[in-house]
Design goal:
Number of strands: 35
Largest sheet: 6 strands, mixed
CATH superfamily of the domain at 249-436: Valyl/Leucyl/Isoleucyl-tRNA synthetase, editing domain
Shape: globular
CATH architecture of the domain at 249-436: Alpha-Beta Complex
Radius of gyration: 34 Å
Structural class: alpha+beta
Number of helices: 28
Strand content: 15-25%
Length: 864
RNA sequence: GCCGGAGUGGCGGAAUGGCAGACGCGGCGGAUUCAAAAUCCGCUGUCCGCAAGGGCUUGUGGGUUCGAGUCCCACCUCCGGUACCA
């Protein structure tokens, strides 16, 4: 909030210049300007990444998009604009900037479209990429298009396969029979996200669990490092926290319970509360637990079997969703509590997850809410072992003194934990254990449109990795993208491709018909951008050492866990393998907020297009009718008729206006609603800048003259340089733009715009609205692109000498303002303040008991 | 339930503990125009007042401070994530 300066603004000046403008009124035509400069940049290869490595580097990366058939929506350019602004700013600051774009193009939508249309997914993918590229280029982003890559390109996925071999070499990839979501109606396997309530979300077809041989990656082997290394990252705390929760480290103990009358049967449980072992009055196994069969008594077998069958047919979601009541069946088996020596019943219950811990628990109903609920339902005994609650009323999960616990009695929970673990370890009944929620990563998909696995299986079942020189294993052509009739993945249709020989021994072998998940390609693309055309290596080590890590990575928060965790995992494996030099790939992460939009719905729930509604007295109506509408802010979607399309916005207002609006809407990381009128405002600002500085003939406006700026104007300029620079560094683009608008408003108030000042303004504007800036720069005498011009420097001395309006308060209430220098002495300020009539009035007849003066901030006089 | 984040004009939003509402949108008035659009100038939180000026105002209630949108405590609402994790 600087002082408002008046540079002799008056109507007569405005009138005089209006006359002049009419004579050579320059009209802002973004479509011409933008086309022209986009061609210029392309022809001159303006944004090619520099080869030299003597300057500091800045690697700024967008999460590359999946090129969907729907094309770009206005959410995409939000993050892309932010990174582009920074890329342009950093170039002007003398950095070598790496700013690439590519395509995460494997994936299900293209495959499904291929099935529907009977075309090859590659063909559809190329079309979609072409469309995305066209749309992205229209926004004038300064990507180095020589480095464009697609995960679907064999020259790219060759190295994805190569990294898989590294994972195998290091024992991190293995095959196992695991349950998958099989949809018989679709004849395909579905991802977990596609299944809800046991049905395929798109068609409602039932989904069942099926055991299939899958590839898995041992990501938990890196759990500790993935957790610890989060500390050093400049990431949003919320994302770090989500990753911590996902990894789910918990400390506790593994405890072994012998089963009565069943030789060799030992039930292992993981517990974070070994201190409550004396209160373990029963046990529960997950329905899938391997011991269920062998320990169930014949009397209970039928009941247990039917319970297990029921559980099997429920999806994970259904099982966990039914939080209302817990169910289970007694197996009839009895286990021995290792510390009390008492026999306790062993139940089966689906509130115990097969996939967490050991798939079995010791139940301590007195001190665990879930166990308490189960015990209550089946009338199982509850024993209090921690005092401080009433276990007949509810589980007491807090701290307290141990009771009914033999040698632990009198201890607090923390001490008791240590003591009991020591006791268990001495007797070989258990041990200290750190458990992770993070599970092995299911890494295969029964799909066509993904990376083939670089392995073959010999007749005896041994799986052999292919040698490096056999890469890439390219996707074969198949006659259809459906699974085979007997449920094999689509690749099984390529019989001749599947039947091959082991390159090592020449023995007959079969290729893998699963493909990798979509996450694979995005796990390392940031490395390939560094050296995208290298045929010998995934990435040249010298280049890698120069460019890594990524200095800034911008994308949506929806990738908070999976993509970002998987990529970190691969990166650490590559680090161990000596392929990369940094422990972490992304130094700074930033999540752009979601862009929502207003939608309009009538009483029947039918949506109306924003072009077809109008506001009257604060209420919304269908245009020209009395039909009242309900408006709300929602995610953009076709069905809600509230999608903003970047192509249309650019057609109407230009790319620079769209870029500006995307940034001006609010803080980058916030969720915010789209309002097309806001784009109009930005267009207006750009047109004003154009009219002020440019003439119709492509030269500068007559009002721009070779003169030096008056002091106050010079100060206003440097204030703006300071502000815009600070806001860019802090990624506060909205307020940076506001500062530019303010400066332009000041310039409209003066008769003459000094040409040097105009040039500086254009440089400040250029990262935000590069097309217009280039056009103006040329008109102001520039002979080539301004992309590598030096960023304006602040003249600090000029700012220090600025005078400001200082607020004068009496008893904390504003009574006037005085104009003083920033660091004016107290005496001077006090004297000046007393001359203000309104201040005087409030001091009159009272005594000043305290004078609070904060230079440059405030003067507060306390009176009695 | 738990973990994040946010509540400020008609709307989007701005404010290192120091003039709340920058900037933009919208609205109102004026200039220009045959007219409209566009453009330019001005006004625009709210209440009282002819005015000068004053009161009130950042989800609610308390507190700290000369001074609180900002810090502390309690609560309410909304958004995002996550959930039988033993």
């Amino acid at each position: 909030m600087g002082p408002r300066l008046a540079f002799g603004a008056c109507a007569s000046v405005a009138r005089r210049y209006r006359g002049h403008e009419e004579a050579s009124m320059a009209e802002y035509r973004p479509e011409e300007i933008e086309k022209r400069w986009q061609s210029y940049w392309e022809e001159h290869r303006t944004f090619r990444t520099p080869e030299d490595r003597t300057r500091p580097k800045y690697y700024v990366l967008d999460m590359f998009p999946y090129p969907s058939g729907a094309g770009l929506h206005v959410g995409h350019p939000e993050g892309y604009t932010a990174t582009d602004i920074l890329a342009r700013y950093k170039r002007m600051r003398g950095f070598n900037v790496l700013h690439p774009m590519g395509w995460d193009a494997f994936g299900l939508p293209a495959e499904r479209a291929a099935m529907r249309e009977g075309r090859h997914p590659a063909e559809l993918t190329i079309e979609n990429i072409d469309n995305f590229r066209r749309q992205i280029k229209r926004l004038g982003f300064s990507y180095d298009w020589d480095r464009e890559l697609s995960t679907t390109d064999p020259s790219y996925y060759r190295w994805t396969q190569w990294i898989f071999l590294k994972l195998m070499e290091r024992g991190l990839a293995y095959q196992a029979e695991v349950p998958v979501n099989w949809c018989p109606a679709q004849g395909t396997v579905l991802a977990n996200e596609e299944v809800e309530d046991g049905r395929y979300v798109e068609t409602g077809d039932p989904v069942e669990r099926r055991l299939m041989k899958q590839w898995l990656l041992r990501i938990p082997a890196y759990a500790e490092r993935l957790l610890d290394d989060l500390e050093e990252l400049d990431w949003p705390e919320s994302i770090k926290e989500m990753q911590r929760n996902w990894i789910g480290r918990s400390e506790g103990a593994l405890v072994r319970f012998a089963v009565e009358d069943v030789a060799d049967a030992t039930i292992e449980v993981f517990t974070t509360r070994p201190d409550t072992l004396f209160g373990a009055t029963y046990m529960v196994l997950a329905p899938e637990h391997v011991l269920v069969d062998s320990i169930t008594t014949s009397a209970q077998r039928a009941a247990v079997e039917s319970y297990r069958a029921q559980a099997r047919n429920k999806s994970d979601l259904e099982r966990t969703d039914l939080a209302k009541g817990k169910t289970g069946v007694d197996t009839g088996a009895r286990a021995l509590n290792p510390v009390t020596g008492e026999t306790i019943p062993v139940w089966v219950g689906d509130y115990v997850l097969a996939t967490y811990g050991t798939g079995a628990i010791m139940a301590v109903p007195g001190h665990d809410e879930r166990d308490w609920e189960f015990a209550r339902a089946y009338d199982l005994p509850v024993v209090e072992v921690i005092s401080g609650g009433d276990v007949t009323e509810a589980a007491h999960t807090g701290d307290g003194e141990l009771v009914n616990s033999g040698f632990l009695d009198g201890l607090r929970v923390a001490e008791a934990k240590g003591r009991i673990i020591d006791w268990l370890e001495e007797r070989g009944l258990g041990e200290r254990r750190i458990n992770y929620r993070l599970r092995d990563w299911l890494f295969s998909r029964q799909r066509y449109w993904g990376e083939p696995f670089p392995v073959v299986t010999l007749e005896d079942g041994t799986v052999r990795p292919l040698p490096e020189d056999a890469l890439p294993v390219e996707l074969p052509h198949v006659d259809a993208y459906r699974p085979t009739e007997d449920g094999e993945p689509p690749l099984a249709r390529a019989r001749d491709w599947v039947r091959t020989t082991d390159p090592g021994s020449g023995a007959p072998a079969l290729r893998e018909t699963n493909t990798m998940p979509q996450w694979a390609g995005s796990c390392w693309y940031y490395l390939r951008f560094i050296d995208p055309h290298n045929d010998e290596l995934a990435v040249d080590p010298e280049l890698e050492r120069y460019w890594m890590p990524v200095d800034l990575y911008v994308g949506g928060a929806e990738h908070a866990v999976l993509h970002l965790l998987y990529a970190r995992f691969w990166h650490k494996v590559l680090y161990d393998a000596g392929v990369v030099s940094t422990k972490e790939p992304f130094r700074k992460l930033y999540n752009q907020g979601m862009i929502l939009a207003f939608s309009y719905r009538d009483g029947n729930g039918k949506y109306h297009h924003p072009d077809n509604v109008e506001e009257r007295d604060g209420e919304w109506y269908v245009k020209g009718t009395e039909e009242r509408l309900h408006t709300q802010i929602e995610k953009m979607s076709k069905s809600k008729l509230n999608v903003a399309n970047p192509d249309e916005v650019i057609d109407r207002f230009g790319a620079d206006a769209l870029r500006l609006y995307e940034m001006y809407m609010g803080p980058l990381d916030q969720t915010k609603p789209w309002q097309t009128d806001g784009v109009r405002g930005m267009h207006r600002f750009l047109a004003r800048a154009f009219r002020l500085l440019a003439a119709e003939d492509g030269q500068r406006a007559a009002r721009v003259v070779d003169t030096s700026a008056p002091r106050e104007l010079e100060q206003a300029l440097h204030r703006t340089i300071r502000k815009v620079t600070d806001e860019l560094e802090g990624m506060r683009f909205n307020t940076g733009i506001a500062a530019l608008i303010e400066l332009l408003n000041e310039l409209y108030r003066v008769e003459e715009v000094p040409v040097d000042l105009a040039r500086t303004f254009v440089l400040l504007l250029s990262p935000f609205a590069p097309h217009l800036a280039e056009e103006l720069w040329e008109g102001l005498g520039g002979t080539e692109t301004l992309a590598y011009e030096a960023w304006p420097e602040v003249n600090e001395r000029l700012l220090e000498e600025e005078t400001i309006e200082l607020a004068v308060q009496v008893n904390g209430r504003l009574r006037g303002t005085i104009v003083v220098t920033k660091d004016a002495a107290k005496d001077e300020v006090l004297a000046e303040a007393r001359t203000v009539e309104n201040v005087q009035a409030h001091l009159d007849g009272r005594t000043v008991v305290k004078e609070i003066y904060v230079p440059g901030r405030i003067l507060n006089l306390i009176v009695k």
